[in-house]
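Page 42, continued from yesterday. The earlier attempt failed because a stray header line got pasted into the input along with the sequence. Redoing it now with the clean sequence only.
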Amino acid sequence: MKNKRQLKILNLIKNEVISTQEELVQRLQEEGIKVTQATISRDIKKLGLIKIPDEDGSYKYALANQKSSAENKYWLKKMFNNLVADIDYSDNVILLKTVKGTAGGLGEALDNANWQHIIGSVAGDDTLLLIVKPSNKTEEVFEDLKKLMV
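This time it went through. Structure tokens are written below.
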């Protein structure tokens, strides 16, 4: 549940202006996730969220893209272990089947990790497509991603 909540937090701050922990608690509760402000505070710290200026001069939460590669790998490994049910590939596309409602957050995490040879992702509810370039690197990326599942 913790990983699903944290993925939802990432999706919310990506798609909405969230300025306070109280707003985040409210939005999560509207999404059916019961949470306290203390839990949100810990999640914000764990996810490395920061506040950045918004267009109107106020501040909003955002993901800090300055995590070390070791932190990113740890976080991705944890996400893969808890969220990915199956993985396959063809040509220059890798397909991940995820726990319902988590594909978008996982795609966001991979996009932010700047994974070599993954040029983008497309997410549904429980399916994530990763586009690999050049196509002859697809199997290599696939094998690296599979290692995150063990």
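Notes: The chain has two domains: 2-63, 69-147.
Reminder to self: strip header lines before submitting.
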